[in-house]
Amino acid sequence: MCELFNLDCSEILGKTDADIFGAETAVHIAEMDERVLRGETIRDSPERPVAGDIRFFDMVKVPIRDSNGRITGLCGIARDVTERVTRQQDLHNRERLLQKIFDTLPIGLWFADKEGRLLSGNSAGVRIWGAEPRVGLSDYGVFKAWRLPSREFVEPGDWALAHTVREGVTILDELLLIEAFDGKMKTILNSTAPVTDDNGTVQGAIVVNQDITERMRVEEALRASEEKYRLIAENTADVITVLDMGLNFTYVSPSIERLRGYTAEEAMKQTLDQVITPESIEQIRGLFQEELGRETGHDSDSTRFRTLILEEYCRGGGTVMAEVSCSFLRDGNGKPVGILTVSRDISDRIRADAEKESLQQQLVQSQKMESVGRLAGGVAHDFNNMLGVIIGYAEMAAAALDAGNPLQKNLGEIIRAARHSAELTGQLLAFARRQDVSPQVLNLNGIVESTLNMLRRLVGEDIDLEWDPDPSLWNVKIDPTQVNQILANLAANSRDAISGVGSLTISTANASVTRRRDTLPGLVPGDYVQLAVSDDGCGIEPEQIDHLFEPFFTTKEMGKGTGLGLATVYGIVKQNMGYIYVDSRAGRGTTVTIYLPRTLAASSGQSDTERCASPVQGSETILFVEDEDSILELGTVILEQCGYTVQKAKSPSDALGLLKTLKTRVDLLISDVVMPGMNGRDLRKLVEARMPGIKVLYISGYTSDILAGQGIPEDSRFFLQKPFSPKAFAEKVRLVLDSNP
Known about the structure:
Layout: H1 2-5, H2 9-12, H3 17-20, H4 23-37, E1 42-44, E2 47-50, E3 53-65, E4 71-80, H5 82-104, E5 108-113, E6 118-121, H6 123-129, E7 144-147, E8 152-153, H7 160-167, E9 171-179, E10 185-196, E11 202-211, H8 213-234, E12 239-243, E13 249-252, H9 256-260, H10 264-268, H11 272-275, H12 278-296, E14 306-313, E15 319-330, E16 336-345, H13 347-400, H14 407-431, E17 440-442, H15 444-459, E18 463-468, E19 476-478, H16 480-497, E20 502-513, E21 526-535, H17 542-545, H18 565-575, E22 579-584, E23 590-597, E24 621-625, H19 629-641, E25 645-649, H20 652-661, E26 668-672, H21 680-690, E27 695-700, H22 704-709, E28 719-721, H23 726-738
Parallel strand pairs: 18-20, 24-25, 24-26, 26-27, 27-28
Antiparallel strand pairs: 1-3, 2-3, 3-4, 5-6, 5-11, 7-8, 7-9, 9-10, 10-11, 12-13, 12-16, 14-15, 15-16, 17-19, 20-21, 21-23, 22-23
Helix pairs in contact: 13-14, 13-19, 14-18, 15-16, 16-18
């Protein structure tokens, strides 16, 4: 410090900042010292005048404390950083000089970082583009440009700058037609170069834009005659043709041979009606007349081009679909003198669009079936309640009659009709993929063999039923009753399709699909077990095949079909993640083939449905909650006949009120799932809070997807689907009471 101020130590000691520094600096330092003496640590870099010069210091001041922590003074350390600051100022001055050069250059100059984000542009660049967008790679879509002479639109990820920052390449003099942000069309030369470090790693990029719009206009007259040939020469992928104003070919590129099979010389000699179909000729002529009308109407635009989809003839027959871009060739005065076309084979795209349309139709069909499925699920609840009452009381009445009572037959017919109605509801739910099922690992051969006798009775003696199993068949996981439904519906369809004597064949096989099959759309690669049902019946008309799986659609005459058979099969197959295909021709029979996913699990040979091993009688106390009066009364009668004490309630609130008055423990809560005011799950929580460990049995006429939304467990031991018989109800109650907690 003595050397810095050219003073002796004695001349500094005992002095104040005001004695050494200027007044302004002394005040600033004094303020810092006061803060330090209050306990702060301060770092500061003020300017300090020394010997008529400006000096810069990094200064740190900290308080000094005694052994008791009391502040007794302060310690300051100052480092002279004048040289460093001076270098920074020099660097800043140089940067200002470079910025001035950057701003005054007559060409557009842009800087981008290594991520492709535009950081800044000079005045010329801003004038060219009409703005200074600071955007990254993901936002290059704000720029609109077309490569010349191809007029190919520059996609966001295909800009020269994008290639430079990604690949480190230099791209020079790319000719672009741009639409600036102020709406003006301009022609520019676009160049990009990477900025790399010593290791060659890209750290950023420089973009140079040169506006040559005016120059291009001046040169237009000189190069108009060669423009069409340059366009032709530079394009190698697409077919380029030139026609005069009479729509006669004056040039055809050699790539025509790849598109249509003709050489360029052969194509030059063809007339327009030998090249494209009559429908396409109409498009060409209509477009030509429209564009001529624009020209005479002073709507001339040298940048305008039109695109058509044309069907063109190929050598040896057949056609190809081509996307054709058309624009006028003009003389120096802008007058049209010919037509330039660029054609590209889009047959694959057309096929893809057709497939997309097919998938869209499948989606509509799926939505239609889903709508009917929702309807079926809604109807099932009320319908199953009514059927449950009919079946329950009919069975109890039949059990109460003597064996020879003539009313037994009448009641039996009532029960059979009610059960048949329940089966129809089940078919609707199977179609909708909403019925409750118990899938298990099994071998289809065993299920089919156990069903053959029933199927033979179903189809009748005039039809020869053949069975062709694969002895090494893989296992699948499916509810065996669903397999029976599939076989019964398909066999019934085959029986109705065979007039008189015929044959029906059921076969199984393993099928490994390694790639998607064109003939079986939607079948993904994997291992499947194939179940096929074939007949030699009347077959199906082609226009009807697409509607076979629609609910209520039938090819049978009035009164001979519900239209739910194949819809039911379709729903079961889809529920089990399978695929179904129909191959049929009128008069040649029908084959329905089902693909079910293979499972590697071993067959248990046992049903997932637990059976009640204990007697159905009991003496426990049961709280029965059901908002449907008829079901509540029926269930109460069944339970009391089995010896149980029943406390019944029409609503959850009634049940909770009843619990407050009961002095005995309730062993089982039987509750409907969906009820006004509170569902069965919430009721269970409140009941368990009062009676921990109580067992619960849910009953419902709703379908499983609705119950899942109500938070009901999937364990089938604690759920009974309506409608149910008195015996099934009693067995389920006993099963739940005897189950482990």
